[in-house]
Amino acid sequence: MNTRRNPLIPLLALGLLGCLLAPAAALAEEPCATGPVEVEKFEAIADRMKTNVPRSQPYFEEAYAVAIWPVIVRVGAGFGGAYGKGTVFEQGEPIGTTGYWQFTSGIQAGAKGFAMAIFFRDEAALAAFQERPLEFMGQAGLDIATVGWHGTPAYNDGVAVIAMTRFGLMAEFTISGVKFTYKPLPGCE
Q1: What are the strands of the beta sheet with 147-149, ordered from one edge?
Q2: DSSP E strands: which ranges in 38-158?
Q3: Exposure pattern of 58-77 as b/e (b: 16+ CB <10 Å)?
Q4: Which of 13, 85, 128, 180 places its Cα 20 to 30 Å from the Cα of 157?
Q5: What is d(CA 183, CA 123) in angstroms, rounded to the nearest whole number?
Q6: CB 142 within 8 A of CB 168
Q7: Who wins on pLDDT, 18 or 113?
Q8: Of 105, 107, 85, 87, which Cα lies nearest the Cα of 96?
């Protein structure tokens, strides 16, 4: 009977343990993994919005956080709906993804695509957005090609909204329900 132990077994066990713990250590070093977020795409939309909607400039500079949807597609004829996906940035860093769902009813006809930014004045406004699932609003607007007329933004309960028409033809005077979803990026919980 051979009682001699193979010296490679403890080394292999130690190596396997290191391989299992290494990803956890790497995640611990990075506070918030950006995952599938394409930061450059959102920066490009923000730059275009600052240029095309000059009143948005101070909001980008002063807001504590911002949620940006590069494109939301909306269709309506009596009843309508809209959908888009975006990213939430806190102090310039992506922290989560967000969805926009809208149902509208009223006088409306057409289709359009628009970019939207929601600005959060402070941390409390951002926290309310992350927890609040549904909003009701009334809206009126006219969009032709890439030109749109919408209300002037101002902070309301710490939140300001700016939309920029990207394409389409739509006229509306509606009431709507909007549902926002929020999902933190891995490591940002």
Answers
A1: 65-90, 93-120, 159-184, 134-144, 147-149
A2: 65-90, 93-120, 134-144, 147-149
A3: ebbeebebbbbbbebebbbe
A4: 85
A5: 17
A6: no
A7: 113
A8: 87
Once rounded to an integer, what is the mean pLDDT over residues 38-47? Answer: 87
Round to whole Å and give the CA distance between 23 and 12. 18
Place of tokens 């494109």: 71
Encoding tokens for residue 166?
Answer: 């990207």
Q: Are 183 and 140 in contact (CB under 8 A)?
A: no
For residue 90, the cross-strand partners are 65, 93
Residues 178, 118, 80: CA angle, nearest 5 degrees: 30
pTM: 0.74
Closest CA relative to residue 43, chosen from 63, 73, 66, 72: 66
Question: Quick one: average pLDDT of 151-156?
Answer: 63
Q: Give the residues across from 83 on adjacent strands.
A: 73, 101
User: Average pLDDT in the 39-52 region?
Assistant: 89
Q: What is the pLDDT of residues 13-27, one digit of tens each?
A: 333 333 333 333 333
Output the six-digit token pair for 92.
């310039």
SS3 129: helix
Please tell me the predicted confidence (pLDDT) of residue 65: 96
Q: What is the residue whose two structure tokens read 């749109």?
A: 148
Strands 134-144 and 147-149: antiparallel
